[in-house]
Amino acid sequence: AIYINEPAHTFNEYLLIPGYSGTDCIPANVSIRTPLVKFKKGEEPAITLNIPMVSAIMQSVSGEKMSIELARNGGVSFIYGSQSPEDEAAMVARVKAKKAGFVPSDSNLSPENTLADVLALKAKTGHSTIAITEDGTSSGKMVGIVSSRDYRVSRMDRSEKVKNFMTPVDKLVKAKYGITLSEANDIIWDNKINSLPVLYEDGRLYGFVFRKDYDSHQENPNEMLDSQKRFVVGAGINSRDYEERVPLLLEAGADVLCIDSSEGFSEWQKITLEWIHNTYGEKVKVGAGNVVDRDGFLFLAKAGADFVKVGIGGGSICITRETKGIGRGQATALIEVCQARDEYYKETGIYVPVCSDGGIVYDHHITLALAMGADFVMLGRYFARFDESPTPTRTVGGTVVKEYWGEGSNRARNWARYDLGGEKKLQFEEGVDSYVPYAGPLKDNVEKTCAKIKATMCNCGAITIPELQQKAKLTLVSATSIVEGGAHDVIRKEKDGSDR
Ligand code: MZP
Question: Which pLDDT value is given to residue 218?
Fold first, then answer.
């Protein structure tokens, strides 16, 4: 046996030591853009994240809603693979289709309002399109839409200005008064048309709904969009049914795939990566993992992985270390893998991004992971707490919670994640079923987390992630100093726990 006598550490055992920061080192100047997939020296990665966060390949985390909202906020979700290939592909397709971007009426507009009222609202809000719903809420039935005339005509032949304002498609699809915004959107995408006229029952035209890519004015610059202006979405795969699953996912529009496995230093992953790249070439992007050391990283990088995930046993719902006695402290694993990634880059000129997966408890753990060399982090528990996770909100013992269960739990039964070529079943559990405290909408939380990351980067004198990785000074802390790091020797009035 080989003994590594140094203990493996977790994020909580490290702190960053501030470095010099100049007056230009302010949060507003910080960019947290980061590569998602590998690239050659001097070239740009095919996919770049606007924030260094992706959501875990888990039933209780990454469904359609999560994928849309995270992409809207600059990250990417990986839709869970522990469902049939058809169901997963359908989810991907729905995310790709949902590029609505219509602005729901935030007023109390109704069909009784005049066009002048609507235009006044448009001028006030600055929205280029306003959808009008019966009760003025985004979930209410949509009765019409008003778009900016000037903007709309600028996309058409100017000589057709007046005539074409409301007739950009000649085959008018007669929509019934009272469809919802999302139904209107489905019709647009299903019929591959650019707009949908909305009519009163008596046939009068009330307005139009436009495809998002027809109205790019509404885009948030931080949104994760690729060439057709649709949300970027990832999908989990496994090393068993990839020949059946991958074609369906690609056809549905998945932008990036990831082999979802609790332990990825195996020939199964190499075979899977080779099949995908031999079948589709390098344009199909696929991450692999998980590994916890240099050898594992090099194996997957050489096998063609487009990014490599690091982490075994550190996930909040994970009992792999207790069950099988395998794993490694997340910080130590990450530091070793990132050093191997840097050496590999020097030798080959190929940069393979590293994802730190699991075990992020506090927001500052994300900054630590980035400082240690991670390009982005994958989070399960963090996202499971938000409105957009697929699980219902409940009240348990007076606390509002959401359910969160591991892929290796009996509830998820994701046997393929733990498969070692045996029977197609989960023989023993490696994950638990749990609750996490409800934390509200993704957007508010992600914004706060990113603000903390940017502030800490400034403390370290860095305005980009590569600069942070280069400049960061990290120190191990003693158990006693961890106590010193929290509020201590005072009686706290309240603690909202919103950080975790
Ligand atoms: P966390 O963000 O909740 O700490 O960890 C999420 C990660 O835990 C996932 O991305 C995945 O790698 C891992 N995971 C998912 N299910 C299990 C399990 O059942 C697990 N053991 O370890």
Answer: 43
State the alpha helices, DSSP H only, in 82-148: 85-97, 115-125
Q: What distance in angstroms lies between residue 103's CA and the mean position of ligand 1's atoms?
A: 35
Does a structural domain hold residue 324? yes
Which pLDDT does position 399 carry in this prediction?
Answer: 94
The reply to whether 155 belongs to the active site is no
For tokens 């550190």, the residue is: 314
Buried b (16+ CB within 10 A) or exposed e, 64-86: bbbbbbbbbbbbbbbbbbbbebe
Pocket flag, ligand 1, residue 337 (CB < 6 Å) = no
Q: How far apart are CA 79 and CA 59, in angstroms?
A: 8
Regarding whether 184 and 133 lie in a shared domain, the answer is: yes
The protein residue whose alpha carbon is closest to atom 8 in ligand 1 is 315
Mean pLDDT score across all residues of the chain: 84
Q: Which residue is associated with the tokens 């992630």?
A: 465
431 Cβ closer than 6 Å to some ligand 1 atom: yes
Ligand 1 centre distance from Cα of residue 262 (Å): 8
To test ligand 1's pocket by mutation, which of 357, 366, 409, 427 has the most ligand atoms within 8 angstroms of CB? 357
Domain with residue 458: its CATH number is 3.20.20.70
452 in the same domain as 394: yes
The answer on whether 253 is annotated among ligand-binding residues is: no
User: Averaged over 236-250, what is the pLDDT?
Assistant: 97
Which amino acid makes up residue 109? L
Residue 411 designated active-site: no
User: Is 401 inside any structural domain?
Assistant: yes
Domain count, the chain: 2
For ligand 1, whether the C-beta of 358 sits within 6 Å is yes
Beta-ladder partners of 198: 175, 207
pLDDT in tens, 388-442: 999 999 999 999 999 999 999 999 999 999 988 888 889 899 999 999 999 999 9
The three-point CA angle 325-330-334 to 5° equals: 125
Per-residue pLDDT tens over the stretch 277-297: 999 999 999 999 999 999 999
pTM for this prediction:
0.81
Q: pLDDT tens, 24-68?
A: 999 999 999 999 999 999 999 999 999 999 999 999 999 999 999
Calculate how far, in angstroms, residue 199's C-alpha sits from the geometric centre of ligand 1. Answer: 49
Catalytic option among 25, 258, 318, 450: 318
Percentage of residues in the chain having pLDDT higher than 90: 66
ipTM score for this prediction: 1.00
Distance between CA atoms of residues 259 and 423, nearest Å: 19
Note if the bond before 5 is cis, omega within 30 degrees.
no
Q: Which residue has the higher pLDDT, 186 or 252?
A: 252
Do 338 and 455 lie in a common domain?
Answer: yes
